[in-house]
Amino acid sequence: MDRMISVFIILFGGYWAFKGWTEYGFWIDKTPGSGFLPVIIGIATMLLATLGLLKNNPPVFRIEKKNFVPVIGALLMVASISVFGMIISILLFLVLWLLIVEKFTIKRASILGLSTTLVIYLIFDMVLKVPFPTGIIGF
Amino acid sequence: MVEIFGMLLNGFSTALSFENILAAMIGAAVGIIIGAIPGLGSVTGVALLLPLTFSLEPVTGIIMLAGIYYGGMYGGSYSAILINIPGDSPAVTTALDGYAMAKKGKAGKALFAANLSSFIGGTIGIIILTFMGPLLAQIGLAFGPAEIAVLILLALCSVGWLLGDSPRKGIVTTMIGILLATIGVDLVSGSERFTFGSENLLSGLSFIPLVIGMFGFSQILEMISEKIKTDDIGDKVTLKESLLDGQELKSVIPASIRSGVLGNFVGILPGAGATTGSLLSYIFEKRVGKNKKEMGKGAIEGVSASESANNAAAVGSFAPLLSLGIPGSGTSAVLLGGLMMWGLQPGPLLFQQNPEFVWGLISSMYVGNLITVIAAILIIPFLMKIIRIPTSIMIPVITVICFVGAYSFQNSMFDVWIMIATGIIAFYLKSHDYPIAPLLLSFVLTPRLEQAARQALNLSDGSLGIFASSPISITLLLLIVLFIMSPLVMKLFKKKQAVKEDPIAS
């Protein structure tokens, strides 16, 4: 994985340097162009990341499938906003997480989910006036 | 000098208003709680709560965020002492002696010493900031574009990552931050760069979703596989049994003063931060302290050195931030982003153009530090409960806060996507020991670096000589060389030491 990360960084730096040189211009009329910084830093990033290919260090902590459960939860929350709106989606996320992932009882999950959602609603919607997106069911 | 006292008194009239005292109290309480929760640190706290402060007046908002920052330093010691898990990285050295003291039944004394030392360190830091801030700003007024560019380069060569295990990885993340900061419209030429045709990227990657993703969401992904056991926390710590006797105070106060001064000096260095401050002060105390043999085995001086230094360093990082616009740590990089969003440009002119803001903030630190130490001591029993909140509840709750915080910045779902994507990227980088704070530091500083460097090159008709044309920039360049060489020198030094200790093996 360490080498894979280095490869991604090389590609990232390379893309920035390439676009900087070919599209934005490195040096125009005796002065640096928009591509000046991307080219210099892009090339330097590639060179340093290439050094990383020499070693394949083990991770400092193990990456498991369960690490990505919050990502799936967040993506499901994004997907459900168009139907349920943001506040209901947050409530559903919290209750379902506590029920399914943490194996809480339905009573405990509901109390925690409802109280957290209420606090978020009060702070963001009522106090800070953030216009939360609503879904097709109107919330 | 008289002028500084006058400004400070004016600042107190701002700091002592009802809303600013309330902001300092809320910031202190939130900071202590976030700092005490294992796995969350001041940078995560400030990142998550930054969107909440945008509806406040800038000075009130920054007072609250500063409170969270130094409150986090106080709180970090609780879990370090009680469960041997530092709430935040600056408290790593606190755990060495603090937990050993707790195991000997002296948890209360360790907590009291930590709070008292945090207060002493913080006060030293604030006093030095009061005099150093205007002085640095005065020096900063002499800076032209070339000097500013070199100064920012110096900040990017942060001591923090140079002293880390892998300086190469620190440099790589610094560069990734620079590249990400070039997304959007180029401020000098007005042309679009790396927007991939997206209108959402025209003004660049949004700072708040990026910070929440990199520090908040990535932390959640990490926490899920490290569920922390909090069962072995002692039942009760009473205030009475926590009080220190005369002998203990004689040990705590000198160690706190020494470490406060050293920690503050480290905090003022660009990019060094509280972790480096507490580490160096701990090592220093181990060399010069009266009780050096007991250090690491439950010496109260160890707790004091670490806690005094990390508070002094946290306050110290405000000096380069306010007077030069250079953050001294990851957390102050987030604060810099916040200040820019309020339309303020930290730098030498801030002291001249917004004195009520700067002095209001500095004066509020005196008040806030006092509020924080009182709160930290009084809420010990409550904090014992907070530390017990299981990660199983914290994970979904913080996920929702990340989600709503990213959305509320511009009321845009695009920012939520940015938060998720940057969270995953930061998680992978952290899993392979790539530090994230340098990325944030460079992301915040790059627009100024690019503008200053290109302005300087325009002035010199493209001659690089302009970057070494004044005594200031030559000094700064020499410091950069010194910083870059330091890991190599340290490696050689360690090798030499190893040879000395074990000549046969080598």
UniProtKB/TrEMBL annotation, chain A:
UniProt domain DUF1468: residue ranges: 4-133
Top-rank lineage group of the source organism: Bacteria
Keyword Transmembrane helix listed: yes
Regions that span the bilayer: 7-28, 34-54, 75-100, 106-124
Keyword Membrane: yes
InterPro entries: DUF1468
Keywords recorded for this protein, A-Z: Membrane, Transmembrane, Transmembrane helix
Pfam families: TctB (PF07331)
Name of this chain's protein: DUF1468 domain-containing protein
UniProt source species: Mesobacillus campisalis
